[in-house]
Amino acid sequence: FLIAQRRMVAFGKKLKQLQVQEWQGYYINYKLMKKKVKQYVQQIEASAENREYILKDFSRVLDKQIEKTVLFLLEQEGQLASRLSSLGEQHDALIQQADSMRIPEMQEAYRDVGRDLLKLLYFVELNAIGLRKILKKFDKRFGYKFTNYYVKTRANHPYSQLRQVLKHVGISAVVGTLSRNLADLQDHQESFISIYDHPALALPDPIIESINAAVDRLTNSTDFLQYLGKHALIPEEELPSPSDDNVDERYHFMSLLLNLANTFLYMVNTYIIVPTADSYSLSLGAAATVCGAVIGSMAVAQVFSSVYFSAWSNKSYVKPLVFSSVVLLFGNTLYALAYDLNSIYILLIGRLFCGLGSARAINRRYITDCVPLNMRMKASAGFVSASALGMACGPALASLLQTKFKIFKVTFNEDTLPGWVMAFAWLVYLFWLWTSFEEPSQDEKVNSVQQETNSGLGTRGLQNGVSQPLLSSSVEKQQNEDEDEDEDEDISEEASEESCKPVTSIMSAYKLLTPSVKVQLFIYFMLKYAMEVLLAESSVITAYYFIWSSSNVAIFLACLGLTVLPVNVIVGSYLTNMFEERQVLLASEVMVFVGIVLSFTLIPYSVPQYVCSALLTFVAAEVLEGVNLSLLSRVMSSRLSRGTYNGGLLSTEAGTLARVVADGTITLAGYWGMSKLLNATLLPSLLICICSIVATCFTYNSLY
């Protein structure tokens, strides 16, 4: 298996230089379509009455281009099917003769067919990219949503050639034949095990994994696992890269498990104090609304810790994780001792230290750099699931700590026990980390850092090599003087080596943020602000209006947290396959708006009103977060997928800043009195939500 995997890596290198000259005439003629768009612009300027003719003519020309490509695709599929049929006859003869010496030769023959299929998939993918760019350019030039019309009328029509590009049933049949025959030729051929009866028993061949990855990219399928992976904003390589061998050697399952455990414990640490933060503040002589500052102090420190941990991960993984554990152990101990020291300042300092121990940047970076490509999406989904589980377990654990006793004059009660429990948990984790974590060797680390810059370039170099006839030819490059800046950007942005290098400063990262990316980050700020206001002030609001105990608040928050994974299942498996992600995005923003409006106390406040509005706001915000990060992973520059100042860091900073502002709002609003606290904190949420909806509407067409 490892030998075959290395052959696939070598094939990825060779494919980068591949020039498909014999296929040149079968690509969608991107150059011709751009000239058509320019001609249409001139016709519109001459007479506005030409609009209907232009739409019909452009549809006809595009249909012909797609038909040419699809007919060639069917011809190539037929050739592959003929080769597979011939190999099938040889396969049957080999089994009857029981000639085990020819099995490697037969496996390699099937892999050759797989490589040709992979080449064909890149052909289809590049044509799909060209088609998307053509439609996007037409919409931009004419201000007409031609894309919606064209795709809706062609995608489901029984005679549409576009369905072959979108559905590619023939390709799936070829993949199925390859998978079955390669599985039959493995070492267990005498066990009579079928992949149809026991699909999990067959070790997947690397060529099949590469083909499946290409098919998934082509269809842009969004099953639950992929949805969670995008939710984590962890980049996924599109093609085998030269660094894949190093990644395989650096992978260590226990180290990955320790990273996920760190993610889980940190989220528990964040939310375990929420139900009792107000009562703890009161016991130290402060106002109940100081709970906003207590909860938010952790987020304030996290703004800075995310940056230095992200930079530290360039050199080591275990050292920052050990430092994080020690700091969190110390911070939770201070948080617990603040009760006996009767000091609100010790309480705040303890939470600041907890924020300084936030190693989520390390957790993301480890998955990116040290987990093999075929496991990265599962690891990303595990990262999101661990976060969601920790968010639910934190308040649930707090509800169990309803006791009071003293040991050597040290008080253990519902306020201090969360600190002591988390301090003990981090002590156990530190011991586990010290004994089980395997640090990748420095040589492998250096090689990976050097090659991660080139991996994106290798992918794009491959795509540019195959797509050269689609985008431009060597002769056409000399005629670029008559093209406008927009047309130049479409080609140069993906082709230049500079565009694949990671950024080295926060200002460089900011300059790469397009308007649509800025709107996505603002949406992330909005939803984190709304969620933090809801969660952080829950203990204060429910105690004031409904006289809820800390255990009741904890159970309520735990129930909210338990909705995260089911909601992601529904969105990832159903909604994003039924609707465009940008449609789900806008609908979720509207639902957050409705939830915030229903939360205002304009009439006598009741438990059903609070619970229903909180549930609506929280669930809508969770849906919005997943879809927003999924879109963000697509529209963000490739230079922000690696390095210290990556997309994950930017989204983390936006969310952390939102939590800081929200917790500060709660603390400041407390000076106006408890009766005005709820409306005073909801009003900024409402205004920010309205602004995000307006911004989304303005950038809606650019969210693909």
What's the topology here?
Layout: H1 2-16, H2 30-46, H3 51-97, H4 103-142, H5 146-155, H6 162-167, H7 169-184, H8 206-219, H9 224-231, H10 244-250, H11 253-271, H12 277-283, H13 291-312, H14 318-341, H15 344-356, H16 360-370, H17 373-400, E1 405-407, E2 410-412, H18 417-436, H19 442-471, H20 485-495, H21 506-511, H22 515-536, H23 538-545, H24 550-562, H25 564-578, H26 581-599, H27 607-635, H28 647-669, H29 674-698
Antiparallel strand pairs: 1-2
Helix pairs in contact: 1-19, 2-3, 2-4, 3-4, 3-7, 4-7, 4-8, 4-19, 7-8, 9-17, 9-25, 9-27, 11-16, 11-17, 11-18, 12-13, 13-15, 13-16, 13-28, 14-15, 14-18, 16-17, 17-24, 22-27, 22-28, 22-29, 25-27, 26-27, 26-29, 28-29
Transmembrane segments: 256-274, 286-309, 321-338, 344-362, 383-405, 417-435, 521-547, 553-572, 584-607, 613-632, 682-703
Domain SPX: 9-152
Keywords: Membrane, Transmembrane, Transmembrane helix
Oligomer kind: single chain
- Average per-residue pLDDT, rounded, comes to 77
Radius of gyration: 28 Å
N- to C-terminal distance: 37 Å
Structural class: mainly alpha
The best one-word shape is: globular
Low-confidence stretches: 1-20, 188-192, 237-245, 444-499
Q: Strand content of the residues, in percent?
A: under 5%
Strand numbers in spatial order across the main sheet: 1-2
For the largest beta-sheet, the strand count, sense and barrel status come to:
2 strands, antiparallel
Give helix % range: over 70%
User: Count the helices. How many?
Assistant: 29
Tell me the number of strands: 2
GO molecular function: transmembrane transporter activity
Family: Belongs to the major facilitator superfamily. Phosphate:H(+) symporter (TC 2.A.1.9) family.
Transmembrane segments: 256-274, 286-309, 321-338, 344-362, 383-405, 417-435, 521-547, 553-572, 584-607, 613-632, 682-703
InterPro entries: MFS, MFS_Domain-Containing_Protein, MFS_trans_sf, SPX_dom, SPXM_SPX_plant
